[in-house]
Amino acid sequence: MSTKQNKSMDPESLGKVAVLMGGRSAEREVSLMSGTGVLAALQSKGVDAHAFDPAERALDDLRREGFARCFIALHGRLGEDGTVQGALELLGIPYTGPGVMASAVAMDKLMTKRIWLAEGLPTPAWRQVHSASETEAAFEALGSPMIVKPVREGSTLGLSKVTHADQCAAAYALAARQDPHVMCEQFVAGDEVTCPVLGTGAEAKALPVIRIVAPDGNYDYQNKYFTDDTKYLVPSGLPLAEETAIQALVLKAYLTLDCRGWARADVMIDAATRKPYLLEINTSPGMTSHSLVPMSARATGMSYEDLCVSVLAGATLDNPAPTQET
């Protein structure tokens, strides 16, 4: 590790840190769990870290109270979608994770897919829909099964798997309750995997792939966060060539969106062709006891606490203040 890296990992050099958690999105509960874990981890490493809930306090309190940087443990809209990132840019307070544009684009699954497709990256076929009847038309076009989900929501909130046309209306209504923008996506049957990336630019590296085996293949909100029935396999058990190809694909997807710091991409591997398809990318990954980035990092020998400090040390701004010449 270089001298510069050693200095950046020194707790005192990180200054007073706000762990942003909670917020006002539908994922508030998960965010509080992530933030609580991150806060305890940073404090255990000697970082001067404090909880900060944007749903309860004004963001300009961060500057008034002398916070030097923020660890964003917010999930979903008004936290992971570029809004908080933009506010922190205006305040001049470095923050973890991708910047304003990358965060905004990644939160919008349709925009993400359009960019990936333009760059030749594989992603399942989709349709944007505005009504139950359009959802039925999409079902005819995409086939069964089909996924219906909100465009700008995470944690599988509002998501349905449709196998019959008469399910389309209820699936559309469920998704539309979370977000007025709804999409349908062709279902890819096969292995479900996820792969985190840490770092920025040429230094960004994909971590080990995790294969997810959920009860009855249903990796929903409950099975993600509140049960121990889902199996997470790391090492993934995939052939080495497949895992390497997925890591390369995810890294390209990350860099294509101009992500930095960290993120985690979800991928489906077609059971028949073994071709991987990108589903989405999370720019403020979960850090709960069931979360996936810590699992993958642990497989490389990195503890949860060291992961938190490493991510925090990479906090930056899209538009940092010019360095003053002396």
The helicity comes to: 25-40%
Strand content: 15-25%
Q: Mean pLDDT score, rounded?
A: 92
Contiguous uncertain segments of 5+ residues: 1-8
The general outline is globular
The Rg value, from CA coordinates, equals 20 Å
Task: Describe this entry's structure for a reader.
The protein is of the alpha+beta class and 326 residues long. Helices cover 35% and strands 20% of the residues. It has 12 helices and 13 strands. The strands form 3 sheets. Strands 8, 9, 10, 11, 12 and 13 form a 6-stranded antiparallel beta sheet that branches. A hairpin with a 6-residue loop joins strand 8 and strand 9. Helix 2 (28-44) crosses helix 12 and helix 7 packs across helix 8 (168-178).
Concise synopsis of the structure shown:
The chain is 35% helix and 20% strand. It has helices at 3-8, 28-44, 61-64, 83-91, 100-107, 109-118, 132-142, 168-178, 221-225, 240-256, 292-298, 304-313; strands spanning 16-20, 48-52, 69-72, 126-129, 146-150, 160-162, 182-186, 190-198, 205-206, 210-213, 231-233, 262-270, 276-282. Residues 1-8 have low confidence and may be disordered.
